[in-house]
Amino acid sequence: MAPQIYFELKNAVVGIAGLGGLGSNVGVALTRLKVGKLILADFDVVEESNLTRQNYFSDQVGRHKVDASIENFRRINPDANLEGRKVRLTPEKVVEVFKECHVIAECFDRADQKQMIVETVLTKMRDVIIVSVSGLAGYGRSNEIVTRRVSDRLVLVGDTVSGTGPGVPLTAPRVGIAAYHQANAVTEILLNELHTKLARNKT
Amino acid sequence: MSAVLKINGTEKTFDEGIPSNLSELLTALEIDAATVVAEIDGKIIERKDFEKTALNETQSIELIRFVGGG
Fold it and tell me: Which residue range(s) make up the domain with B41?
């Protein structure tokens, strides 16, 4: 990759809200890109059932996802600047935890939590862009997962309809497609839209 | 009397008149308010204000729906 791209990403701060199938994989991609700082928020611990699609390993079962993710990302880049927050995110906490972020990746599992953070970012956090995901359950139908610009500060990834439910599991391939759509949207925003801001921030 | 609302770029007809507020619109559409971010004429309406947000035919209403999974 061109050194210039690394240089700009070095000044970026990205929040990852939730470290499940989306967040644990988005974090891998952004760590490999050497994004300047990642703020990782999750209250949960790794469970055996998570290993079907989330970026954890069997010897990490029982550990906090924040701790396990930091360990995994540091194996990719020992110098990565990672801030872990073991919190259950509420509107107030979202604003506090992610205040220095340029972009936030919404990586929650529950629909009402997705609604909460998108509404909070759009109404309470000026200038911050949020990349959210809705509709990724099941398998196949790769090309139905799309990235759509809803408004200046909201990007929506997914097929918009495939929620989890009886007989509709979350699978590693389709969750992975959505996670990498999301990471790619974050990258595009940082490099194409925040270019000036990130270049100015260098100190 | 029937009336029309513009929702997500599509006109939707209500045979018995426009729902009196955003909350009633979601009920009529059978959408759980807890999973929707709503925008009217480019402005985000917070969920707590759905009930006091009146609707009319000139508005452009965007309903962004979330389904579970991540």
Answer: 3-62
Q: Do the chains contact at B68 and A123, CB–CB below 8 Å?
A: no
Which CATH number belongs to the domain containing residue A77 in this structure? 3.40.50.720
CATH of the domain at B17: 3.10.20.30
Task: State the smallest CA–CA distance between residue A199 and chain B in angstroms.
Answer: 30
Residue A200 pLDDT > 70, yes or no?
A: no
- Is B65–A122 a contact, with Cβ atoms under 8 angstroms apart? no
Considering only CB atoms, A119 lies closest to which of B37, B62, B69, namely B37
Task: Report pLDDT digits (tens) over A112-132.
Answer: 999 999 999 999 999 999 999
More confident of the two residues B3 and A16:
A16
Query: Each residue of B4-57: pLDDT tens digit?
Result: 999 999 999 999 899 999 999 999 999 999 999 999 999 999 999 999 999 999
**Host domain of residue A135:** 3-200
Residue B70 domain-assigned (yes or no): no
Distance from CA of B6 to the nearest CA of A (A): 17
Tally of structural domains, chain A: 1
Looking at the 3D structure of chain B, how many domains does it have? 1
Terminal CA-CA length for chain A:
22
Confidence of residue A195 (pLDDT cuts 50, 70, 90): confident
For residue B9, being part of any structural domain is answered with yes
